[in-house]
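Record type: monomer structure entry
Structure origin: computed from sequence
Chain ID: A
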Amino acid sequence: MVGKENARQLLSTRQMTVVGMLAAISIVLGLTGYGFIPLPMAKATVMHIPVIIGAVLEGPVVGMLIGLLFGLFSIFQNMVAPNILSFVFLNPLVSVLPRVLIGVTAFYCYKACIGKDVLKLSFGAVIGSLTNTIGVLGMIYLLYAADFAAVRGISPDAVIKVIYGIAVTNGIPEAIISAIITVPVVLMIRKVRQKR
């Protein structure tokens, strides 16, 4: 009985360690600017990748906790270093909810996918990344379409086209980068764990 309790305690401790480490990586990526990869058309973010990695390694609850910390950091960052769109990221429905859902979608899509582990990890990473893109931009459109148009200097009718354009130019590269980074990192961590 004691052995079972210790095993549960150890698993819980490991999961909390993973949450702390990966959330810290997300925050460091955001603070240093390394969380953004410049592309010809836009900047792709990689700050959601620790959420995906945590989810596929340790389950949806771990992914959700890392996503929660990522989202809360997003609010903090927009409070201390505001820009023209910071007002939308002060709303937890924009900055926190989609980031929490990354862990859920990444884990369950990884589990639902049939095939080799590389394919499953890639699928989970792509869906997790798209959850971030579609969730954040979708919430901006639903809650702040008129305000978004005003600060961007566009007509309210053009908001959906602009948001769709951002989703395509940022979302597709981010999804691809997520898979490229997630697959080798997760496979390497699993390999190291097997050797212990």
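Annotation 1: Residues 159-195 form the longest helix (37 residues).
Annotation 2: The chain has a mean pLDDT of 89.
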